[in-house]
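Priority: medium. Attachment 1 of 2:
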């Protein structure tokens, strides 16, 4: 992530939370007062967002000292000290909630991703995110997926071509293969095509598509698609998506697909419980 993006998100988050000023802190705490605090994990998971939390406090006071003890991507356990912070008491008090919100939120995504990744360790398959992300926070959420061992799918609609069912309905006067051929002639980029049954799959398997997305197909059908692809010796990659959970992901991974994309990595995560505990205010 670019630092300008992180600074922009932090600036907007602080402006939203502080408003015209932290009236409690500003009226009770001297502008010269200093404090020491620790970011502490209250549950086990995969950490993500340490440098973002640092930026929150630095944005409020440039001389805040933020010493990280655990890095992004590492496992934290209950009562682990993530970072030690010292400096302006006002900065620590006013930045506490934004720092914890971002750190807990992103660590929740990293933790969720790690759970899926761990489930498919015996298989050669990438666990991928989707575009089902929080508006304007996609870069951070994709970074959290990487911290959890996942792989990022396309960043936006320009990054690669992806023909979905609604595209095909809109192009109903042409066959699926014709639509793909038209795209490949016009744009030199990776093209993924969505199918939801084996008849569609067999048709697309003869096309110039680079990836076929097997949408909401049960593992048995996906295994059949993999066998057909392998028998044809096609270089097309296969991706499973839709209805995939921690309970059933091993069945999907065992089919032999190269990619599994899961919207729940970002849209259904639980935050990792993290707190900021003050040690002393001299």
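Attachment 2 of 2:
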């Amino acid at each position: 992530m670019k630092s300008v993006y992180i600074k922009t998100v932090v600036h907007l988050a602080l402006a939203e939370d502080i408003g015209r000023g932290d009236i409690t802190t500003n009226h009770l705490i001297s502008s010269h007062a200093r404090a020491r605090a620790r970011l502490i994990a209250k549950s086990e998971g995969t950490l993500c967002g340490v440098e973002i939390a640092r930026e929150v406090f630095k944005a409020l006071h440039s001389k805040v000292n933020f010493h990280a003890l655990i890095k992004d991507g590492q496992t934290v356990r209950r009562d682990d000290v993530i970072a030690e912070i010292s400096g302006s008491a006002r900065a620590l008090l006013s930045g506490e909630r934004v720092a914890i919100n971002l750190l807990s939120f992103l660590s929740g995504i990293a933790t969720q991703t790690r759970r899926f990744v761990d489930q498919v360790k015996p298989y050669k398959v990438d666990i991928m995110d989707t575009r089902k992300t929080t508006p304007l926070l996609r870069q951070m959420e994709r970074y959290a997926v990487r911290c959890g061992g996942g792989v990022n799918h396309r960043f936006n609609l320009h990054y690669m071509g992806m023909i979905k069912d609604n595209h095909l309905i809109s192009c109903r006067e042409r066959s699926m293969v014709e639509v793909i051929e038209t795209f490949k002639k016009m744009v030199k980029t990776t093209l993924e095509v969505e199918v939801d049954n084996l008849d569609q799959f067999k048709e697309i398997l003869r096309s110039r598509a680079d990836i076929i997305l097997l949408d909401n197909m049960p593992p048995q059908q996906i295994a059949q698609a993999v066998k057909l692809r392998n028998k044809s010796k096609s270089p097309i990659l296969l991706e499973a998506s839709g209805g995939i959970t921690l309970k059933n992901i091993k069945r999907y991974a065992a089919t032999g697909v190269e990619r599994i994309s899961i919207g729940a990595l970002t849209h259904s995560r639980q935050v990792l419980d993290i707190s900021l505990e003050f040690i002393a205010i001299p």
